[in-house]
Amino acid sequence: MNFIQNPAQIENRSMEIIAPYIADLNLTFEETKIYSRIIHAAGDVEYAPLIKIHPNAINSAKSAILRGANIFTDVEMVRTGINKRTLKNFGGEVLCKVADDDTKKFATEKNITRSMAAMRIFGEKLNGAIVAVGNAPTALFEVLRLVREENILPAAIIGVPVGFVGAADSKAELAAQNKIPFITVSGTKGGSSIAVATVNAILYLLDNSRD
Amino acid sequence: MNFIQNPAQIENRSMEIIAPYIADLNLTFEETKIYSRIIHAAGDVEYAPLIKIHPNAINSAKSAILRGANIFTDVEMVRTGINKRTLKNFGGEVLCKVADDDTKKFATEKNITRSMAAMRIFGEKLNGAIVAVGNAPTALFEVLRLVREENILPAAIIGVPVGFVGAADSKAELAAQNKIPFITVSGTKGGSSIAVATVNAILYLLDNSRD
Fold this sequence. Notes:
- 2 copies of one chain form a homodimer.
- Chain A is an alpha/beta fold.
- Chain A has one domain: 3-Layer(aba) Sandwich (Rossmann fold).
- Chain A has helices at 7-22, 29-42, 57-66, 76-81, 84-89, 101-110, 114-122, 137-150, 167-176, 192-205, and strands spanning 51-53, 71-73, 94-95, 130-133, 156-159, 182-185.
- In chain A, strands 1-6-5-4-2-3 form a 6-stranded mixed β-sheet, with helices on both faces.
- In chain A, strand 5, helix 9 (167-176) and strand 6 form a beta-alpha-beta unit.
- Chains A and B meet through helix 1, helix 2, helix 4, helix 8 and helix 9 of A and helix 1, helix 2, helix 4, helix 8 and helix 9 of B.
């Protein structure tokens, strides 16, 4: 069988292939890791000019993780993909309420999406936490409303919802505000895999067992 | 708040936006559903010319689900995203072994990826089942080896691993064989979200509670 089968070799080779596509962006070491993991997770170098990292986003997210902050996700796929082992070492956990009965009931009553309802129910728990939205623009709009109208202050928002209805607008609104450090991707692209890649890139920066 | 919040409206509007990008491809009704869900899940209309559906793939996958076949996935994110409610109605379940202790042990011994080891351990269980590979080219290469060398015969292979190391090659090999009906995406793009979108599109074709 003529293909690379060793996980570390696969990752290193992938990062080598991606490097030229981000060489001109003057990224820091840490930004390079995040860009590379996003591009790797999408198999799409056209992400390079779309990624937006607020100057304080990486430090704020790292500090939050180090003090044991939780990560709140919009959908179960994002919760599943995040590296829980590293997060748990610092005391945090990954939480998602989209499939809970109270969330479904609330969403049906209000005729809103379940992931939007879940963020509203989290409410003050998002203070000082990391929010990762990979799927639902409505969830990101709701988090931004909580910030704006209810003075909820997450440590960082990873907001990369995907699709043609609201995703680009919700991410433009995230990038236009300056109250909460953020990482996002402009336009219609994004998704759960991109949210997971971003969060895990940050977690790996804190994991001394990895180089 | 000036954005669509109703889930059915969001989905319908998204499908309307995607329609012109696939209008020239002469797709069947069922193929249109699969293309639309993939493009929606990626937020990327450039998927349209990359998607390859074997002429018998949709029927073979539907028949398998109707007789209660299981779906085997390479990673937990794919397992998480698949609509279990619809599958369960027909008696099937979604199985993934990538995080199991015996898989880890086997992968370490052989110095191969865990998702590749997991497929080898599944072995004959893949006969008549649906295989969904969203992340790991090595898992897809292993499934194709099981087909070729051990005469394992899945009902259909949804093979959309992502990235720059092996993904394009593994998908080219999938599309070049004619023994097992397949759905794939050429090139480096793909991922867990794409595998999930494909499987769920097929499940929704069988779900009379949805239009």
